[in-house]
């Protein structure tokens, strides 16, 4: 698991009380996250990583791995 994925997993566990047994591949549908959690996560991601990813896109990403892919796609080219 890369550093961004680990950080997002830690956010889910520590801030949103998600089971600490999750991995970056755990499907969000299994976690029963509501739209408010996804909205807060969207704000945290924007603040820490730059790109604004709407909460509906986070849900569609399906997992932390999917979010990492969205962050990478939204990151400016080096």
From TrEMBL:
Gene3D superfamilies with a match to the protein in the record: ACP-like
Domain Carrier: 1-75
Bilayer-spanning residue ranges: none
Record InterPro entries: ACP-like_sf, PP-bd_ACP
Entry protein name: Carrier domain-containing protein
Provenance organism: Streptomyces caeruleatus
């Amino acid at each position: 698991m890369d550093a961004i994925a680990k950080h997002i997993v830690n956010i889910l566990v520590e801030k949103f009380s998600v089971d600490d047994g999750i991995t970056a591949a755990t499907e969000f549908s299994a976690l029963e996250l509501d739209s408010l959690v996804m909205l807060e996560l969207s704000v945290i991601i924007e603040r820490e990583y730059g790109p604004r990813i709407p909460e509906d896109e986070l849900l569609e990403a399906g997992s932390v791995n999917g979010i990492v892919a969205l962050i990478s796609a939204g990151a400016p080219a080096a």
